[in-house]
Design a protein that fits this description.
two-stranded antiparallel sheet; alpha+beta
Length: about 400
C-alpha cells in the first residue's frame, strides 16, 4: 500500500517528506509555536479596528483556525509516524490551507494582502511536503471552493477575479517550490553521502596506518632479532628453527602490509602518490643536507594498494641512500602506464657481487612482488646506485 501511495501521489519517485521530523511533529511545537500564532492573528483581526474596516466574520475565522489546529493535533494524537507520509502531509497541508482561506472567506472585501498569506502557505508547504499530486490539486481547488462563500455578495465578481489570479499564482509557486525542494534534498543527500565516504576513507586510512605502525613494527623487530640470532648462532644448533621463524615473520609482515594497503580498494590518485613521495623523501634529504630532485612522467589510474607499495619502495630507497651512500644528490622518477619508479643517487655505491643481500633488499623484493613488478638494482663503487621497479605494460 505504501508503494502504491508513493508512486501515485508524488511527482518524484522517492519523496522525502520528513524534512522537519520530530521537531515539528510534536506537542511542544503545537503549544509553543502553532497555537500562539493562531491566537495572536485571531486577536489582531477580531479585537482591533481591523475588524470593522475589513468586515471580518469572527466565526468563519475561528472555524478555520480550529480546523488547522485540530488537524495537526489529530495527527499528533494518532501518531505521525503511523500515518503514511503522503497522507500525513496532505492532512496538515489541508489544515493550513483551511486556516488561511478562512481569513479570505471571512471578509467580503477582495483584499490582496490576505491572499499573500495563501502564497506563503503554498510555498512553505510545497517546500516541506512531498511533491504530492493530491496536495497540488488541493492547492488549486481550495481557493476555488472559497468562492462559494461569496455567492450573492455584491463584490462577488471582484472576488472571483482575485481568486482565479491567486489560484494560478499559487499553482506556479507550488510547482517551483516542490521541484526546488527536490533538487535541494538530492543535493543534501549527495553531500551527506560524500561526507560519509570521506569519513569512511579517513577511518580506513587511520586503521591501515595503525596496523602498520603497531603490528608491522613488532613483526619487523621480530624479523630483525631472528637475523641477529642466526648471525650469532655459530654452532648452528638453532639455525633451522630460527630460519623457519624468520621466514614466517617476514611472510606475516608482508601480509600485514598488504592488508593495510588493501584495506580499501578505492582508487588513489597519482598526484597524491607523487605528493607523498616528494614530501617524505624531500624532507629526509633536506634534513641531511642532500639535494633532492623529483620528476613525474605519464599519469594514469592507480589503486590505493599499489600506491602504498610504490611509495614504500621510493621512500625506503631514499632512506637507504641517505643512511649508507653519502650522496650529494638523490633523484626519484615516477610514471604510470606502466607503473614505474626509479631512485638514483651519486653516492659511494657498492659491489653487488660482494655484498650478501640483507633485510633491506628483501623488503624491496617483497614490495616489488606485491606490485607484480620487476626489480632491477644497479650499483657501481664510486658511481652511485640505481633502483628501478617497473610493472608489466
Amino acid at each position: 500500500m505504501k508503494d502504491v501511495l508513493s508512486s501515485s501521489w508524488t511527482f518524484w519517485p522517492a519523496p522525502d517528506p520528513d524534512v522537519f521530523g520530530d521537531k515539528v511533529y510534536s506537542w511542544k511545537f503545537l503549544l509553543t509555536v502553532n497555537l500562539p500564532l493562531v491566537l495572536a492573528f485571531y486577536s489582531l483581526i477580531v479585537f482591533t479596528p481591523l475588524r470593522a474596516w475589513m468586515g471580518v466574520n469572527p466565526s468563519i475565522l475561528a472555524a478555520g483556525g480550529l480546523i488547522q489546529l485540530g488537524t495537526f493535533a489529530g495527527v499528533l494524537a494518532y501518531g505521525y509516524r503511523r500515518i503514511h507520509p503522503g497522507l500525513r502531509e496532505l492532512l496538515t497541508y489541508g489544515g493550513n490551507l483551511a486556516g488561511t482561506l478562512a481569513l479570505n472567506v471571512s471578509t467580503p472585501k477582495p483584499l490582496f494582502i490576505l491572499w499573500i498569506l495563501y502564497f506563503l502557505v503554498v510555498f512553505f508547504e510545497a517546500f516541506g511536503n512531498p511533491k504530492a499530486v493530491a496536495a497540488f490539486a488541493l492547492t488549486v481547488i481550495a481557493p476555488a471552493l472559497s468562492l462559494l462563500a461569496f455567492v450573492g455578495v455584491p463584490e462577488a465578481r471582484e472576488n472571483a477575479i482575485l481568486t482565479a489570479l491567486s489560484t494560478g499564482i499559487g499553482a506556479v509557486i507550488y510547482l517551483l517550490a516542490a521541484y526546488v525542494a527536490g533538487w535541494t534534498r538530492e543535493g543534501a543527500l549527495e553531500k551527506a553521502a560524500r561526507a560519509h565516504l570521506k569519513g569512511a576513507l579517513e577511518e580506513r586510512s587511520r586503521l591501515a596506518h595503525s596496523l602498520d605502525e603497531t603490528l608491522g613494527s613488532a613483526l619487523a623487530e621480530i624479523s630483525l632479532w631472528h637475523e641477529v640470532a642466526l648471525a650469532t648462532d655459530v654452532a648452528g644448533a638453532q639455525n633451522a628453527s630460527l630460519a623457519k621463524a624468520r621466514t614466517r615473520a617476514r611472510e606475516a609482515l608482508t601480509e600485514l602490509r598488504e592488508l593495510a594497503a588493501g584495506i580499501d580498494r578505492q582508487p588513489a590518485s597519482m598526484a597524491g602518490l607523487a605528493g607523498e613521495i616528494q614530501r617524505r623523501a624531500g624532507n629526509r634529504c633536506a634534513a641531511a643536507g642532500i639535494a633532492f630532485e623529483f620528476r613525474i612522467g605519464s599519469v594514469g589510474p592507480i589503486t590505493l594498494r599499489d600506491s602504498y607499495h610504490t611509495a614504500m619502495i621510493a621512500i625506503e630507497a631514499v632512506e637507504n641512500a641517505v643512511l649508507h651512500a653519502k650522496p650529494r644528490s638523490v633523484s626519484v622518477s615516477l610514471s604510470a602506464s606502466p607503473l614505474e619508479v626509479t631512485v638514483e643517487d651519486d653516492g659511494v655505491g657498492f659491489d653487488l657481487t660482494a655484498v650478501h643481500p640483507g633485510r633491506g633488499m628483501r623488503n624491496f623484493e617483497e614490495l616489488a612482488s606485491a606490485l607484480n613488478a620487476k626489480l632491477d638494482l644497479v650499483s657501481v663503487p664510486g658511481k652511485g646506485t640505481r633502483l628501478h621497479v617497473r610493472t608489466a605494460a
